[in-house]
Inverse folding.
């Protein structure tokens, strides 16, 4: 089980205690239902992890105040949608700002926006290979000079040159 990125108090800050009670009180007791709230908190956390797992460790994401605010917006959005309720405009706009095409999370995935103060997964330095042309061979004349190339392994895809026909 993952520890949620935000807490009930974050939801109260975003939509007030009466709003949290109104949307979570399925039994009409006048009190908030912690099970409903916990489900929304976990769903928000799981969705953020699902989007950002390839770039950030969940333990790092949980340290970010920005991610906590995002999770609160997501959780409020999911809480408002319980029982088929309409989502208030302010919550809907905040959710759309994060998730729409060109939204903040899309910018994170495209490398246009970085979550401050947390480390990204993997090595972020470029790997390089110095090449030389070895004219002694008919095929595969381009060779890597290992002694002056980077020894950092890369998870990036390698582009291969197409096979050149040798019609001589």
């Amino acid at each position: 089980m993952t520890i949620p990125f935000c807490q009930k108090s974050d939801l109260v800050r975003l939509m007030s205690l009466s709003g949290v009670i109104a949307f979570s009180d399925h039994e009409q007791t006048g009190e908030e239902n912690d099970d409903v709230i916990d489900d929304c908190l976990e769903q928000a956390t799981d969705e953020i992890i699902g989007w950002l797992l390839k770039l950030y460790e969940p333990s790092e994401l949980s340290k970010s105040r920005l991610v906590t605010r995002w999770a609160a917006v997501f959780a409020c959005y999911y809480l408002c949608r319980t029982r088929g309720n309409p989502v208030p405009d302010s919550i809907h706009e905040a959710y759309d700002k994060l998730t729409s095409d060109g939204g903040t999370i899309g910018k994170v995935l495209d490398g246009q926006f970085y979550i401050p103060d947390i480390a990204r997964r993997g090595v972020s330095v470029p790997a390089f290979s110095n090449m030389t042309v070895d004219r002694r061979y008919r095929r595969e004349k381009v060779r890597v000079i290992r002694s002056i190339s980077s020894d950092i392994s890369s998870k990036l895809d390698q582009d291969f040159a197409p096979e050149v026909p040798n019609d001589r």
